[in-house]
User: Fold this.
Amino acid sequence: MKNPKVVILGGGFAGIECAKAFKNKPVDVLLIDRQNHHLFQPLLYQVASAGLAAPEIAHPIRSIFFNQDNVETLMDEVTAFDLAGKKVVTREREIPYDYLVISMGVKTGYFGHHEWEQHARGLKTLDDATSIRRDILLAFEKAEACTGPEERRRLMTIAVIGGGPTGVELAGTFAELARHVLQRDFKNINTNEAKIYLIEGQDRLLTMYDPTLSDYTRKTLESMGVTVKLRNQVADLRAGEVVLKNETIKAANILWAAGVEAPAISRTLGVETDRAGRLLVETDLSLPGHPEVFVAGDLAHCVDQSGRLVPGLSPAAIQMGRHAAKVILEEINGTRSKDYDVRPQFRYFDKGSMATIGRSHAVAESMGMKFDGIIAWLMWLFIHLFFLVGFRNRLAVLVQWFYAYVRYRRGARIITGLHFPEK
Amino acid sequence: MKNPKVVILGGGFAGIECAKAFKNKPVDVLLIDRQNHHLFQPLLYQVASAGLAAPEIAHPIRSIFFNQDNVETLMDEVTAFDLAGKKVVTREREIPYDYLVISMGVKTGYFGHHEWEQHARGLKTLDDATSIRRDILLAFEKAEACTGPEERRRLMTIAVIGGGPTGVELAGTFAELARHVLQRDFKNINTNEAKIYLIEGQDRLLTMYDPTLSDYTRKTLESMGVTVKLRNQVADLRAGEVVLKNETIKAANILWAAGVEAPAISRTLGVETDRAGRLLVETDLSLPGHPEVFVAGDLAHCVDQSGRLVPGLSPAAIQMGRHAAKVILEEINGTRSKDYDVRPQFRYFDKGSMATIGRSHAVAESMGMKFDGIIAWLMWLFIHLFFLVGFRNRLAVLVQWFYAYVRYRRGARIITGLHFPEK
Assistant:
């Protein structure tokens, strides 16, 4: 008898953990991703700010499963779902499944203002990160050679939109990059004059954290030279300009960390979504009306046992991926019926969350406790190193971080992908 | 009195060493490069074959001179020379000079067959290297999902054209990549069936070395599974096809390591060039008729004291850069006249040369001695680590190599810069 076939869409945290949970089980797994690598997204901002090289936070998906015989990997992209026929259609073929796990994640979202995308880059992929790195380093190169003070100021201005963890991390790391790392490289410009704006619509940063931590974060960023603008919705974005209610900020680089949305294809599934397009799932993570289809990770709009929306964090994605695998395995083993009501509900175990602000500053909340300063930063460092996939990366990243910490340097401030037209 | 202004074009080995030689001297140096980084070209093939990440072999030019006050760095590109007016014209401005050092290097050359460029990538820049890495990893991904045996064979075939050091290094490293590193990642294809061709027009590889080393190199490559084709001129290149005299090789990836040529702009200088466009310089490295202009590095066609053409190797570039600086400084100090005849002749000190074939295999020649096998490989490893710019890179590279050596893995096999059209 053939093993049931589980198709997993997306090699992020949810997809990888789901596939791993089938190890040594009578299941054939096919993991499909558009990229050949699993990305350690929590450190993506470090690539953008020249702290780490791209391969240091990415790992080939194939090699994660090289010793798990029942997982095949396919680099391809899903173009359509055929839920009735239990098939997914990719660019190259049709793939039948017995169980489907949709863990494609989300992309940068602009609140419906798709025209803003060209003016403000999001940070979701390695290519986003290396493009941001290139554009920002390039702006400083231009500033160094620039003679007009106004244009120079514009080139040295970075506006980060969105005061969540990604925005805070980006603003903090770019402040450090400008004030410490680049400072000694440049001779004509004073990189201390670089302006970093962090723009947030609500009245505090990191709204999901305790207000005291929000306050600590703002003060720390300000002491690092970041201009924090709270209660400022973005009214419009134009090339090199952020329009707020009362002012317009001219910035050569505008980064968008204010929202995410589901990929367009997920809307073709015919199920209810939230405003960002995330799929409203049953309590067992299955798609309404399709007990053989599961949604795991950021793409799932899932309310947990306590009635709270499960956050879009890697620990939640990992737990969801494992839960989907568990439900599928129980059903294959015949230990549960297909009846929804008796399937185990997904229970989110909230280990806490953390955001780093800069060198030796971070905030963390866990089990009702709050942490800030160097303690939180060491927790952050330890946990992120621990979870980085693969020995090599862990060691190389540690070397880089140690070096960056001691010498205030960034090894990866290399501009690639820039093509002057041929002479 | 203002210091004399030295403009250096190109931040390769020649340009960097030339600028360094002006440390603490009464000279203002402006170093112009199209890129923001100095590239350790001898290890570029390691980025192409996923052994190293791009930033590990590159170093921001600015940071090389952060403690040398008289060097300014400009990321720009020269678009015209005005030798009579002692100016260079860049995309952005006109820059006057008292002394000019042209150290722009060479680019991949196709023996006049410019139409071949689209079918066979050369290896001269970081972007070349990451593109080669992407294309080759992608071909294996496609092969894994491919059902037709012929197409699968084509996808798993790499043809390297040119049996010099770069060609040998590429063929060797891709043979290892396919047979050891990728072997365990893929489940449908047997990467041992990957075909690596090394195609050379002459009757032996590494023609500049002793024939016994050429022979050792060929045998080593063959034992690694490389098909070495000697006495085979490329008759034509088409998309995915290398046409030789008696056969046509179908290869998804074709790499060109068979020649270099001068950038087009160097032909506008109005001096005699060799067939590859390299500038024929005086014995002091100055441009004929322009004692204030020097050519250093690969772009110089220079005959040394013993009547031999100075090879296009990094030690020669380094020595030329220093020589140009020495002549300029002697003139500024008034210790020599501008008269050509009394200027010191460039003397090439040939330390020897080496090429690596694969894990623990290399060949080297130095001071009339020949080395091969693991001895040559350890020499190669030591020398390349020693010369890598910057502590961080050296340590990170050592970690990577050690890990790759012990575990037969490549950490950087990440596909970036690939964009499926938006769904």
Observations:
- Residues 154 and 251 of chain B are 5 Å apart (CA to CA).
- The radius of gyration of chain B is 22 Å.
